[in-house]
Amino acid sequence: KVAIKGIERELICPACKELFTHPLILPCQHNICHKCVKEILFAFEDSFADGGSESSNQSSPRIRISAASMDRIDRINRSGIKRNSLTPRSTLFPCPSCQRDIDLGERGINGLFRNFTLETIVERYRQAARAAIAIMCDFCKPPPQESTKSCMDCSASYCNECFKIHHPWGTVKAQHEYVGPTTNFRPKILMCPEHEMERVNMYCEICRRPVCHLCKLGGGHANHRVTTMSTAYKTLKEKLSKDIEYLISKESQVKAHITQLDLLLKETECNSERAKQEASQSFEKLYHVLEEKKYAALRAIETSKNIRLEKLQTQVEEYQGLLENNGLVGYAQEVLKETDPSCFVQTAKQLHVRIQKATESLRSFRPAAETTFEDFVVDTAKQEDILGDLSFHSNGLEIPEINEEQCRIYNKALISWECPEKTDSADVYVLEYHKLNKEEESVTWQKTEVCGKSKVISDLDEDSSYAFRVRGYKGSICSPWSREVIMHTPPAPVFSFLFDDKCGYNNEHLQLNPRRTSVESRAGFPLLLGSERLQVGCYTTLDYIIGDTGIAKGKHFWAFRVEAYSYLVKVGVVPSNKIQKLFHNTHDVTSPRYEQDSGHDSGSEDAFFDSSQPCTLVTLGMKKFFIPATPAAPKDPASRILPLPWCMGVCLDCDRGRVGFYDAGRMRCLYECEVDCSGLMYPAFALMGSAAVHLEEAVTAKYREYHDDI
């Protein structure tokens, strides 16, 4: 038998840290006091009303909601749960044992079972703990006598005399069930919390809880697998008995593990003391170095001070000699009293030289030494940064590497990293980043802690370069910093739009995805039927599609990807007053100058073709980017053909009347030209043959999770 006093750990409520009082069984199979459930729910509701403020955490003197629970409250608040919905709402409860949000269902606390078995064990523990304290009779006149029995039907304790009085022979009360003195009164029959007039007689194997026949017929357990209470009792008791017997049979193994753990405890104590000593010695070395540097710096300042004071003091004495009846002037005045010419000349010659030097010094006065000590200012900025990053380094913790292929920067920055060995040895990562600015002498890193291996960063400046680095932490041990990765933000705010499926959209040649973020041109039967009438040349028109949102002013940027197999794609902008002309334009893609029998190569057709276009477009296709033929462009056609970037971007500046085409991966401008922004400007695309264009999606907080699911 297990001693009652040895199981106290199992009888403590995880919320109030005291012995259970009327314990309830949560859906996660953990137990908690009935009073604690109500207090936590009240604090939970207050947190919803106050937006999860810290003041709501003081609603109960017994219960303190942990930081993790408060984070869950904030997460539920942000999830947009309707607290006043007309539909039946469920009650969320933060379990203090498993730290999960438990759904209590529509009935809340009223739908929870009371754990009478645990309550009985707690009562036996209380009785064992207070064996010397007797339970007094509830009906004796003062002073009460010690009770000898307790009635489970009356929920009261009696001495022998009071029991006979209140349970007379031959009455209904004489049939009541009585036990030894106790304060734990449990009902004889366990009733269903959902159907209060029905007793539980079945066990739901799915929900792992007792249910009544109404729960099975039309309640929430109608489609669940249930068994009879006697069968569940027998099965669970056999399983529990076998498991207990197995653990008891392994008592020697458990004791061996306990002995091993005791040794590990002692070893941990010794190793921690050794680590403290080594860390203390390391810091003592730093203190020693700093003390030496401090002594040397103070000594150098003191020496310089003495030299300067000596020079200034000498200069003071020299100028004091220039005063009347003092020093050099006084001596000269005495020499002037000499009447013998030969003696005067002999003395006055050298004296006159000294007087002249003193006069020149007076005219160009300059202190003999500087009073400032700017040369002795100690610059400790770098050392402070190094000491700020001072931590335990371990060769066993891998250096994370930023995966540039998975990183992207658009409206926000998505930074992803991984460990070389594909292991997750760190508990948490620290991501740092800063803006590259040549004017700033010192670098200020912005820091953020991340539990995963990716982070979305917002509030970055436009048209700027940022450096990113990451390191891993496991406890107080950290890895070295990863290699810095530099990324560039778009030159303007990101403009979001979808493909317009109404204005001029040709659904015979173009196919949109349901989200209208991708368009595909297929060279199918319509193209073959159209070319059936042609005998010479390849006169095929482009299929145009525009964005569903226009731009009136300001500077905007959007990005897209062109599939590598695309034959011909044109991208750019079109003003609103030329959209109709765009979709009714009958000019063909190829000019007569390229026909074998054209007969000339003047290029006049190209000039007519370019001037007649209603919008500003550049040509992409066959994995190439074609710079338009303009006077400023290279004359050699080969110099105007560039490799097609994996992601393209367009930057429209309505205020300046300029449009630029960018390599969106490097944020480098490939071509820029003037554009007429007299009306609303719409993104425009044209496709011919097999081609596809995908709009770049905005980076959100769950961008990585969404793409991982795909």
CATH class of the domain at 510-532 and 539-588 and 612-695: Mainly Beta
- Name the structural class: alpha+beta
Q: Which regions contain 5 or more consecutive residues with pLDDT less than 50? A: 51-65, 75-88, 586-612, 705-710
For the CA atoms, what is the radius of gyration? 45 Å
User: In which order are the strands of the major sheet placed?
Assistant: 22-23-34-25-30-31-32
Give me the CATH fold name of the domain at 510-532 and 539-588 and 612-695. Answer: Jelly Rolls
**Number of DSSP helical runs:** 14
Query: Which CATH architecture of the domain at 510-532 and 539-588 and 612-695?
Result: Sandwich
Number of strands: 34
Question: Could you say which overall geometry the principal axes of the C-alpha atoms support?
Answer: flat
Distance between the termini: 56 Å
User: What is the fourth-level CATH superfamily of the domain at 510-532 and 539-588 and 612-695?
Assistant: SPRY domain
The overall pLDDT average reads 78
Helix content: 25-40%
Main sheet overview: 7 strands, antiparallel
Strand content: 15-25%
Describe this structure as you would to a colleague:
The chain is built from 14 helices and 34 strands. With 710 residues, the protein is an alpha+beta fold. The strands form eight sheets. Strands 22-23-34-25-30-31-32 form a seven-stranded antiparallel β-sheet, with no helix packed on it. The longest helix is centred in the middle third of the chain and has 70 residues, at 251-320. 18% of the residues are buried. Residues 51-65, 75-88, 586-612 and 705-710 have low confidence and may be disordered.
